[in-house]
């Protein structure tokens, strides 16, 4: 049995830890934090939402979340047939997401398919949005089932988008969706990073 003072101290510790969890912007990361603090059975609660999050979203968040750099290049293996992806974290001080969480723009060559994706800190209702960069023709990004990932068409449309995105040191998205319009990214080293994708996807 805990004494009254010990119980009060433990309760205060839990409250402080829970307050720290509230500051986490990512939905899944915040849930995992609360599970840890309150010792929720993880197999019953935390694993269910993760199954609905696409692997591309996980790649983007893990790459960008593990570094303070504006751009991160990740490779798996060498040469054609292996995988590589580049993430760019939005530079905007304010965003349309809670706590001004930053969307992640990801360009990738996965399983010999080129793609451009926008990983979002939390889900949106838009099924499809229009985006354009560097005065290039607009392209459509489609949402996945969970609403946290917007994806371009694969292959040539994605490659053309990547080329447009690498033309200037500062990449600005224009979109009919308020959460994406005006997002800015540091693309100063993007062209060099894309060489890893070119090599693997053969463009």
From TrEMBL:
Organism classification: Bacteria, Pseudomonadati, Pseudomonadota, Gammaproteobacteria, Vibrionales
Organism: Vibrio furnissii
This protein's name: Type VI secretion protein
Pfam families: VasI
Record-linked InterPro entries: T6SS-assoc_VCA0118 (IPR017738)
């Amino acid at each position: 049995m805990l004494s009254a003072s010990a119980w009060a101290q433990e309760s205060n510790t839990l409250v402080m830890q829970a307050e720290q969890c509230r500051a986490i912007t990512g939905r899944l990361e915040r849930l995992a934090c609360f599970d840890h603090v309150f010792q929720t059975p993880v197999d019953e609660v935390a694993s269910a939402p993760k199954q609905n999050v696409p692997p591309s979203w996980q790649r983007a968040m893990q790459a960008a979340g593990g570094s303070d750099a504006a751009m991160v290049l990740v490779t798996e293996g060498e040469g054609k047939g292996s995988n590589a992806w580049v993430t760019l974290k939005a530079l905007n001080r304010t965003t349309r997401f809670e706590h001004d969480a930053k969307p992640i723009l990801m360009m990738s060559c996965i399983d010999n398919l080129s793609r451009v994706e926008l990983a979002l800190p939390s889900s949106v209702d838009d099924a499809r949005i229009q985006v354009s960069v560097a005065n290039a023709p607009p392209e459509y990004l489609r949402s996945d089932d969970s609403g946290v990932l917007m994806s371009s068409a694969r292959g040539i449309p994605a490659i053309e988008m990547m080329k447009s995105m690498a033309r200037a040191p500062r990449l600005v998205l224009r979109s009919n969706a308020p959460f994406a319009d005006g997002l800015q990214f540091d693309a100063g080293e993007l062209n060099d990073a894309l060489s890893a994708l070119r090599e693997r996807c053969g463009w």
